[in-house]
Amino acid sequence: MTEAKKSAAKKKPAAAKSAKARAGATTVKAGKRRWDIEGIDDWGASRHELGATIPDAGNSVDNETGGWRTNVPTIDPAKCTGCMLCYFYCPDASIVIENDVATGVDLAHCKGCGICAAECPVDAITMSVEEKE
Amino acid sequence: MTKIVDLPEGEFVLSGNRACAGCSLGIGLRAITKALDGQMVMTVPASCLTVLGGMYPVSSVTVPWINVAFASTAAAATGVAAGLRAMGRADGLTVLAMAGDGGTGDIGIQALSGAAERNEDFIYLCYDNEAYMNTGTQRSSHTPRGARTTTTWAGKRENPKDMPAIMEAHGIPYVASTSAVYPDDVYDKVAKARGIRGLRYIQMSTACPPGWGFDPRDTVRLGKLAVQTGLTVLYEVQNGVFGLTSASRTLAQAGRRRPVAELIAAQGRFKGMSDEDVGEIQAWIDSRWERFMAREADPAGH
After folding, report:
1. So where are chain B's domains?
2. Full-model pTM
3. Helices (H) and strands (E) in chain A, counts
4. Are A84 and B4 within 8 A, CB to CB?
5. Which residues of chain B lie closer than 8 angstroms to A130, CB-CB?
6. What are the chain B neighbours of A38 within 8 Å (beta carbons)?
7. CATH architecture of the region B9-297
8. What interface predicted TM-score (ipTM) does this complex get?
9. Which residues contact B69 (CB under 8 A, 6 or more apart)?
10. Which of A16, B52, B86, B174 has its CA 20 to 30 A from that of B235?
11. Residues B217-254: tens digit of each pLDDT
């Protein structure tokens, strides 16, 4: 993953400060986890939690689904009217909102479905074929 | 009525999940968890939802979630609700049983019917993607007529099961039908259900790009088109009183439904259907819509 993608990944919507964000919602950041699953394929039965419990809710943020993408969205924040359709229609919560406008996409997780571009009422989002490294 | 722009931004369903690109279940589940403010315990059988919520050892949700055997979604929810009551924790925590259309209408119906008859205290939400999508698109009782699946390779011959009507016949306090591409409607219905005691049943139409055969960018467009044709109807029945909601209510007032042929032409699973078959589906939707109109005109009748 490039540095640019890493920094995009850090700007997750859940982490963005918003007056509308509810107190109960959890912020989960990528990175060090309280449940280390390193080498889990080689664990014996005794190392797993009882009932195959996952004690670290939301550890999927470490699971980067950006590699699934064929087309990549680009957002023009200058055109954005703050209607929030892209944010709530994104199945993967991967639209970055700053100061009530869409400013970017969490490219570590965006699967490239293109719903955001199809539904944007002011055409502020365009899809293009992604150059793979 | 909540507008999309006013939905809470805090997320309980995180990225990095393994749902397909463009899956509308992610849109719906985010709205559901927001409506319950994360104060919930979920029971979930094998389904696409398990793939979205997390395959061991990964979890994409920040709410308690129990994976249960296929037929036991409602039975497990009954037990969790009873357990919370016994521990004095039932207030403020909602038990949400959530399963697919196959896990509800086929495999889970007996446990669900039993729980409804006893009026157990939980919300049962069936997300309806119209086949067993998780295992590669086998037909379910909710698959629409004409749709090709791997087990109906020449097109299914039967109309889908009307599960909300079956649940309504149990006399439970709240039954609703919604669509994942209207997260505002989903939010309002789950928020309303949260404030009701007893068994509450919500069915959520969930457009599926690989199973229905369309470009994932069109998920929201197709889900809305299904409502505009009158195939998916957004409504609720609270204590026996019927009411259309959201886009279906607007559609009833405008009185102009789009032809179902548009919806059929947009999906690969209906490829090669004859005009005669399309006409029969249109006639079926028309007669269904007339019944909804009659109920809308006389909400407490039926």
Report:
1. 9-297
2. 0.92
3. 3, 4
4. yes
5. none
6. none
7. 3-Layer(aba) Sandwich (3.40)
8. 0.95
9. B45
10. B52
11. 999 999 999 999 999 999 999 999 999 999 999 999 99
